[in-house]
UniProtKB/TrEMBL annotation, chain B:
Principal subcellular localisation of the protein: secreted
Pfam families reported in the protein's UniProt record: VWA_4 (PF25106)
Localization annotation: Secreted
InterPro entries, per the entry: HMCN1-like_VWA, Thr-specific_kinase-like, vWFA_dom_sf
Keyword set, alphabetical order: Secreted, Signal
Hemicentin-1-like von Willebrand factor A domain residues: 18-144
Name by which UniProt lists this protein: VWA domain-containing protein
Length: 396, 236
């Protein structure tokens, strides 16, 4: 028993960062119990007075930060159902714990094989989750597939996405220090990479909610095509390529407006990326999520704002973007092969009637969708990624 | 031109240092081969997991500290390598690991804390963009208090703390002035019994420590090595 919760599975670090986690039960309800690896509260009489003072100060700041996020992100707030939020936060002995409801996830091995409308719903619920954070000027800070739980209610036609793990969140423009900031090396934004590398031209104020938008752009490409945008094998990540002035190669089987949207979201300059609200608006027409069997026209290369071409399909008004993109003839340009990047399947337990978070149900697969085994276009993205979860849970 | 040199120099560079502290006393006999095999496979498995996550480690170094008991035989209580670059020095690494024999140990507690202290004071990488410094402890026994059993032996490490409190201060915490390891880089993974000092004094009270209870005579399970690899891969 920990803090009144009965631990029912072996604690593990699987898919976790600076934590261990287990499932737990209290009063007949199942929970996800997260044990923080730091900070640790000093025991009575342990260490020198100076040591205790420093450690207690650190603990107080840790508690304040978590409680302030919990206050801002309340489960009963409008749209709060799209976020997996903490229901309890406490320490037992030296160790801090956080509790969330247990979320059972749905197996979604190949999101790219979903119908356009289903893809649009999945992405809209993900976008809506992120908007809740961005509306209060909070950066998630570690947005990646492993921090998105995909659900499908019994009998429902649609998958929906729930965002988890806000423990590395920070106020927009006020990130942790360069050595302390969290983030994923694959999904990190260009300015995040430079911040971590000690680039003095990037300071805290430049790490804004646009950091999340870059990751969301990569995830959108993955959900729609099954892979990340392609980039030259010399680079360790999409952000490394973008920082070197090498644009990402968006899959040309995507609709033209979607190509433009993803290009804008992965622009080098954070100020040129659309907002979460704009992303949401661009998905109004599900057809933009279609994965065609033949290459689609590239967005107008002369357009000052490639993202603007998405407006013609959605009517949304994006923030300006002048990101460059690959003209069609780059599709077959030989590039250095990237390192092996195997795909990993998303597995999970059957859903257990999660709360509603997606739009109304309906819809059969729509025309224009590439079936799973359909011939591909002349170029496919060469990078496949792990979609997320090994087990059905709400870990963070 | 090597593939390393072909890499874009602006890529984010990750350095991973791992010190494996391996109990090589007689009671580990049933499991030492498993620990050794797991250690030998470690590099490839880490590489595979990182590749699945589309991630790469720019520099990987491994160091092994095998320990027994200064109270039983000070002459072989500690055997260790320097940090070895993998895969370049894989032969040296394999030769050392394969040479380990589970012998001696005397009474039940062993000199695990001396091994841990040596590990903490290792020459960790300080360059590249981001670092992970991981100590992994494999033992099936409690440990003698530091600076007590065998402390007068010639071979007893000279520059390590002589008390748990001092060792704790070397391990450190956020804003510590005495820590010898980088707070944001370090992790301690214990495969150790639910005895002291592993369970409470370290497993419960030290920052960034993961304790997976081991039982004497039971092996290093497959999932346990996965835990180490996950711990590294998830943090990059």
């Amino acid at each position: 028993m920990i803090g009144g919760y009965r631990v029912v599975t072996d604690p593990t670090n699987a898919d976790g960062g600076k934590c261990m986690w287990a499932f737990a039960e209290k009063d007949g309800t199942e929970y996800f119990l997260k044990r923080f690896l730091e900070p640790k509260r000093p025991r009575e009489g342990s260490g020198s007075a100076a040591s205790r003072r420093i450690r207690l100060e650190t603990c107080q700041e840790f508690e304040d930060r978590h409680r302030s996020i919990m206050k801002l992100l309340r489960p009963d707030a409008s749209g709060g159902g799209n976020l997996v939020l903490a229901t309890d936060f406490f320490h037992a002995g030296s160790t801090y714990y956080k509790v969330t409801e247990r979320i059972d996830t749905t197996t979604l091995d190949r999101p790219e094989s979903l119908a356009p409308k289903q893809k649009a719903v999945l992405l809209k619920t993900l976008g809506a989750s992120l908007r809740l954070l961005h509306d209060i000027d909070v950066v998630h800070g570690d947005l990646k597939p492993a921090n998105v739980l995909v659900q499908k209610r019994d009998g429902a036609a649609f998958h929906s996405a729930k965002l988890i793990d806000f423990d590395d969140s920070y106020p927009s423009g006020k990130p942790p220090g360069r050595d302390d900031i969290a983030g994923d090396s694959l999904y990190g934004a260009p300015e995040w990479r430079r911040y971590v590398q000690g680039d003095e031209t990037v300071d805290g104020p430049e790490l804004t909610t646009a950091v999340d938008i870059f990751a969301l752009g990569l995830m959108t490409h993955h959900y729609l095509t099954g892979a990340l945008p392609a980039y030259d094998g010399r680079f360790g990540s999409p952000a490394d390529a973008v920082n070197a002035g090498e644009p990402l190669e968006v899959d040309d089987r995507l609709s033209t407006p979607m190509q433009a949207l993803i290009m804008a979201m992965t622009a080098a300059g954070p100020e040129r990326r659309p907002t979460g609200a704009e992303f949401f608006a661009r998905l109004k027409d599900p057809e933009v999520c279609t994965l065609h069997t033949v290459p689609q026209p590239r967005p107008d290369p002369d357009a000052a704002d490639p993202a603007a071409s998405a407006d013609s399909a959605t009517g949304a008004k994006p923030r300006g973007s002048r990101v460059t993109f690959n003209p069609p003839d780059r599709a077959t340009r030989p590039t250095t092969p990237p390192p092996p990047r195997a795909g990993d399947d998303d597995t999970g337990t059957p859903p257990k009637a999660p709360e509603a978070s997606g739009p109304p149900e309906s819809s059969a697969p729509e025309s224009g969708e590439a079936p799973p085994d359909a011939p591909t276009g002349p170029r496919r993205s060469r990078v496949r990624i792990n979609l997320g979860h090994r087990t059905g849970d709400g870990r963070s | 031109m090597t593939s390393e040199l072909e890499k874009y120099h602006g890529n984010l560079q990750y350095a991973v240092d791992i010190v494996m502290c391996i109990d090589a006393t007689g009671s580990m006999n049933p499991v030492l081969d498993i620990v050794k095999n797991s250690s030998l496979q470690f590099h490839q498995r880490l590489h595979d997991v990182m590749a699945k996550k589309s991630k790469e480690i720019s520099q990987l170094r491994l160091k092994v500290i095998a320990f027994r008991d200064f109270g039983d035989d000070p002459s072989d209580a500690i055997e260790q390598t320097d940090f070895l670059h993998l895969p370049r020095q894989v032969t040296e690494f394999e030769t050392f690991v394969r040479s380990l024999r589970a012998i001696g140990g005397g009474d039940i507690p062993e000199s695990g804390l001396e091994a841990l202290a040596l590990a903490i004071n290792s020459p960790w990488e300080t360059g590249l963009d981001r670092r992970r410094h991981v100590i992994v402890m494999f033992t099936d026994a409690p440990a003698h208090p530091l600076g007590t059993v065998g402390a007068s032996a010639q071979t007893y490490p000279k520059d390590i703390p002589r008390s748990m409190e001092d060792l704790f201060e070397q391990w450190g915490y956020a804003r510590s002035q005495t820590a010898v390891m980088e707070q944001s880089a370090k992790r301690l993974v214990l495969f150790a019994p639910e005895d002291e000092p592993w369970k409470e004094a370290i497993g419960e009270d030290w920052d960034l420590t993961l304790h997976f209870p081991s039982r004497a005579g039971e092996g290093l399970e497959e999932f346990e090595m996965d835990e180490i690899i996950e711990t590294i891969a998830n943090s990059l």
